[in-house]
Amino acid sequence: MTALVPVILCGGTGTRLWPLSRASYPKQYWALAGSGEETLLQQTQQRLESIPDLQPPLLICNEDHRFIVAEQMRQIGVEPAAILLEPMGRNTAPAVAIAALQAAAQGDDPLLLVLAADHVIRDGAAFRKTVQAGMAAAEGGQLVTFGIVPTAPETGYGYIEAAHPLGNTTAPVPIARFVEKPDRATAEGFLATGRFTWNSGMFLFKASAILSELERLAPEVVSACRSALEQDSVDLDFIRLEREAFARCPNVAIDVAVMERTDRGAVLPLQAGWSDVGSWSALWETADQDSNGNVLRGRVISENSSNCYLRSEHRLVVGLGVENLVVVETNDVVLVAHRDKAQDVKSIVGLLEQEGARESKAHRKIYRPWGAYDGITEGDRWQVKRISVNPGASLSLQMHHHRAEHWIVVQGTAVVEKDGVEELVGENQSTYIPLGCKHRLSNRGKIPVEMIEVQSGPYLGEDDIVRFEDRYGRSDLAPTPQ
Questions:
Q1: Which domains does the chain have, with CATH numbers?
Q2: How many whole angstroms separate alpha carbon 2 and alpha carbon 205?
Q3: In CA terms, which of 255, 293, 347, 425 is 20 to 30 Å from 1?
Q4: pTM of the model
Q5: Residue 353: what are its φ and ψ, rounded to 5°?
Q6: Least confident range of 105-119, 421-435, 447-461
Q7: Sequence-ordered list of residues with C-beta below 8 angstroms from that of 319, at least 6 positions apart, any chain
Q8: Quick one: which of 230, 253, 254 has its CA closest to 240?
């Protein structure tokens, strides 16, 4: 049997799930579905694990999220075949081309199962059964896409028309056409024919088959991707695609580039409790609800409330006598919306972007390869952060032109280097980093180092960092002093 390689596409910012999902930490990296702590990305990989001949996954992500992806795979004990870094988003056709070229470079011709990292699938067993049902057709050279059996005349999804009514078929059916998002009357007509499914954006095909069709139908995509891969650079556990070559790649979906034009396309119906989690109301619909129709996440109290989605990330959220609301609390934003209007949150993100508001793209807590920091409070010429440094991790060797720093360790033991001299700073101890001092903090222990950082100076921006050494391959290093 041909080996099966998952190709997990981790791009996208999911602004319709703002304020939780933002560009700095999109929805696929959050635990949104089920009662466990697994993120959508982790669930995407885990639901495959009993499929025979399953190989380690290929993950394709934005370079800004590379350490998040690597850490989430490490947490579930998965070592990817590769994590490929896109220097900018170019839609799904280039991502699929990169995956197929990478697989071909290994000398094999596996089946590629292309999945989005941010979908919810409630019935994992049904999903695995459907994937296996499509493998023979894919091994024979067909390009199989999974069509979601419609549960309603949705106007927010694209549709796929099969060449004949699907009935209870368990084998792929030739595709007649793809249809963009219809109006309601058209969608109702689609459902009446028994030939239409929702377009899920999930695919199964041999690497050689999709490369052949890409070469025939979108040669410019393959050419740019091949060049970007040939000029790649290995960065720790990542493959960094060459920026200029990848930038020449057209921004096009695999549906448009190939699936709508090929004569080898086939659709396989899927009934597995699928959702693309495109809004807070969609998340409410797919989640387990209590007897009053509420979905409660985090530190939440609900009394005499019904049909609500109430989520707390930090502070206590109380719902008292409310109905049909979405309430989402983060450490810097509280969203309150009627469930029927929750999809309009994207327009709020647009307004915040116009204002240049930080909340449009980033959380207060910012993740770094060594850990994370949280901006607690700030004033004129000062600010306070909480910093967490993972075991075995180290900040870059750096200095600042415009600020001094005072570090107070509250957990663990930090190794602090100042102008070439190391000192140990333990719990309830502190150290001072003068302006212009070349410094670094390392955690050589087995528990995270937690510390409070007080910055003071005329300019406190994150761009006031001059790096001299960095174990994580960040490219903004200062020239080596002579």
A1: 4-275 (3.90.550.10), 285-345 (no CATH), 365-469 (2.60.120.10)
A2: 11
A3: 255
A4: 0.89
A5: -65, -40
A6: 105-119
A7: 294, 300, 301, 302, 303, 305, 308, 310, 325, 327
A8: 230
